[in-house]
Amino acid sequence: MTPETHSKTAPDTETEEIEIRVVRSKRRKKTVQARLEQGVLVVLAPATLSDAELQPIIAKLRRRMQRRQQKPADAELEQRAVQLNQTYFDGKLSWHSIRFVTNQQHRYGSCTPANGTIRISDRVAQLPAWVLDYVLVHELAHLVQPNHGPDFWALVNRYPLTERARGYLMALDLEESTV
């Protein structure tokens, strides 16, 4: 049994034209999802959602997809981490992988010290370089100190823009929570 579908193309007023295909389902009750399929933004929506209600959601999903496509390469992130390791940790740290991820909407980064995996939210890629550097230093420090105790903050505070970057991220969090 296949869901009821409707397709249409919508102009992307923020950039170039992009094809949007809306797939409506009677079984879908609340959520709206999107995925990119061969350059087409496929939006899965409840059948009960009007076009007017759907338009701002599509705009937000489109922006999210564009950010994902524009993120810097993980190789560049790795290179930046190597430089920061040299500068603030005397090159003593090692990790298994460091990469941008798209599934962290409420964190800027995370580290699993046990296996040396560092993940940075793709949202951070759009922030100023000095803020990205802070997030990297923060996660690199977790390779030495897994908690947020005084020894951890002593390591992080080696980065001279720590306080400024933390203030920037706090302001960003406040702005996003009021939208």
* Coarse shape: elongated
Q: Strand order within the widest sheet? A: 1-3-2
**Mind telling me the CATH superfamily name of the largest domain?**
Metalloproteases ("zincins"), catalytic domain
Extract low-pLDDT stretches: 1-16
The CATH architecture of the largest domain is 2-Layer Sandwich
- CATH class of the largest domain, anyone? Alpha Beta
Number of helices: 5
CATH topology of the largest domain: Zincin-like
CA gyration radius, whole angstroms: 20 Å
Distance between the termini: 39 Å
Mean pLDDT equals 85
The portion of residues assigned to helices is 40-55%
Tell me the structural class: alpha/beta
Characterization of the model:
This protein is of the alpha/beta class and 179 residues long. It folds into 2 domains: 20-70, no CATH class; 74-177, Metalloproteases ("zincins"), catalytic domain (Zincin-like, 2-Layer Sandwich). The protein contains 5 helices and 6 strands; from the N terminus they run βββααβββααα. The protein has helices spanning 51-70, 74-89, 129-141, 150-156, 162-177, and strands at residues 20-25, 33-37, 40-46, 97-101, 109-112, 117-121. The protein has a 3-stranded mixed beta sheet with strand order 1-3-2, with helices on one face. β5 (109-112) and β6 (117-121) form a beta hairpin. α3 crosses α5 (162-177). The two termini are 39 Å apart. Mean pLDDT is 85; it is low at 1-16.
